[in-house]
Amino acid sequence: xxxxxxxxxxxxxxxxxxxxxxxxxxxxxxxxxxxxxxxxxxxxxxxxxxxxxxxxxxxxxxxxxxxxxxxxxxxxxxxxxxxxxxxxxxxxxxxxxxxxxxxxxxxxxxxxxxxxxxxxxxxxxxxxxxxxxxxxxxxxxxxxxxxxxxxxxxxxxxxxxxxxxxxxxxxxxxxxxxxxxxxxxxxxxxxxxxxxxxxxxxxxxxxxxxxxxxxxxxxxxxxxxxxxxxxxxxxxxxxxxxxxxxxxxxxxxxxxxx
Length: 258
Description:
Largest sheet: 9 strands, antiparallel
Number of domains: 1
Distance between the termini: 65 Å
CATH topology: Immunoglobulin-like
Number of helices: 5
Shape: globular
CATH class: Mainly Beta
Number of strands: 13
CATH superfamily: Superoxide dismutase, copper/zinc binding domain
Radius of gyration: 22 Å
Mean pLDDT: 80
Strand content: 25-35%
Helix content: 10-25%
């Protein structure tokens, strides 16, 4: 390269470096959020943001006002990103069997199967869908962590059909009898129906990066309210396998459908 060509190449390389540094985010880089709507008599609230860069997602889930305790221990709540379906939360009209609870099976046609489990730590695969030890503990909690998203979850986010569902009803507000609440779950018979049914739900919508959702829920879920009638005794209905130290861990039989 002669002297003239070298002089021309230097500013050209510099301009290229500036262009690369200021390059916009890829199509996959985006932020999503939702204000979660109430289901099945739930009086709690929730919001979530998911900031995606490549296949990494920084999750900030805030939940409050859910069922707090069971057998003098924190009530475990599991939550997931569902997808691959219509991207909609269920409504009371989806209670096909008329038992007063919209269960998981009745919600899946709208929000789809589990694609990512929003655990408090560890693995986030659908296999952890009913790992109560890695769920949120108590009525108010948060999940704040960075996780790796699989291709299916990324596609659901980009297609606008990713839905966050938080499970675990409060027997005091569910509005059904103890018999119905404590009946075997259709997805995990070792657990009661009320423990696995959806409590909060919201479709993740693309937003400005890092912005928390504000205002009312835009999820298709009608906000429900119910006065507390006092804690209904469940007897032995809620079967949780106690691990050492009083924590809970239950393995589901069909986790991918919760």
